[in-house]
Amino acid sequence: MLKLTSASAAVAVLSTILLSTSTLAADVKERTLKFGYSTFEAHPLGQGANKFVELVGKKSDGKIKMKVYPATQLGSETQTISATQGGVQDIVGTSTAPLTGLVKEYAIFDFPFLFANAKEADAVVDGPVGQTLLAKLSEKNLAGLCFFENGFRNVTNSKRPITKGEDVAGLKIRTMQNPVYIDSFKALGANAVPMPWPEVYTALESGAIDAQENPYGIISVNKLNEVQKYISVTKHAYSPWAMIMSKKLWDDLSNDERKIFVDSCNEAKEFQRKFSREEDAKIVADLKSKGMAINELSPEEVAKIKATLQPVIDKYSATVGADLVKQAQASIAATQ
User: Fold this and answer.
1) In Å, how far are 118, 172, 260, 319 from 180, measured between CA atoms?
2) Angle at 265 between CA 116 and CA 257, to 5 degrees
3) Which burial class, exposed, middle or buried, applies to 18 when counting CB atoms under 10 A from its CB (0-12, 13-18, 19+)?
4) pTM to 2 decimals?
5) Is 211 in contact with 171 (CB distance < 8 Å)?
6) What PANTHER family does UniProt report for this protein, alphabetically (predicted)?
7) Residue 23 CB burial class (10 angstroms; 0-12, 13-18, ≥19)
8) CATH number, domain 29-333
9) Residues 214-255 pLDDT 10s
């Protein structure tokens, strides 16, 4: 009798699971979505994107599929953000810098030397500041899912090692089309040249510009070692990478489908960040073996550069808003 009761209980539990599963399946439609981003598939961001696609497929029982277009196949970051706003593209992965034209508060991620390490960056992008910024995208026909990591940005150039702020002066440096970056490098005496990413390699190769700044992964997969001699480990900014969906698509999703996308993004971001940080050390060794000269900046010189850039930080703190800046500072302080 006891065995029968146990068996009956097991059947009841199994029936509940099957009913739950069938209910979930009923709330997930067959979809094929267009997902585009700017970097190469081999980059840690591309690997994170692949993990996201895999997880969405698994959690939707294969019903939600994605056609993935890496390496600016669908256009620059600015173009693909616009296409996603219009619902022509379903999902975009993008640096946060181009988003400042839509939501001015995203400029907080461009503040020079805001983060000292990855732990501080994670606390801000995964905390109240990050959630506030993702939510603000809904006002612009977009739906924010989560943040991957592009990484800490360093300066490369073809002229000289940068060991102090004065070494930046006179360099023609490509920056993203973003006012904080432009003002920051101008404050150091550089000729800041905003330029879409697909044009950068050719401009460096021809000598139209001398320098650019990006995380190690971008430097490596785009083979900038072929047109740049020096990497200076400035770590002057940390660059998150936003995973964003068209609001048109988001509004069409069931609650179960929304949960699939958000959960998949949050799982994929953990994989992607770990992969990115493990790759950095390998990339540095590889770039050295290919002839790039890599130098560190002393803490004293970093402090001097940050002091030079304080007026830029003050200017954009007013734009971003004192409350958001305080939230970011509180999240950073909580990691100490």
Assistant:
1) 21, 17, 35, 11
2) 155
3) exposed
4) 0.87
5) yes
6) 2,3-DIKETO-L-GULONATE-BINDING PERIPLASMIC PROTEIN YIAO, PTHR33376
7) exposed
8) 3.40.190.170
9) 999 999 999 999 999 999 999 999 999 999 999 999 999 999
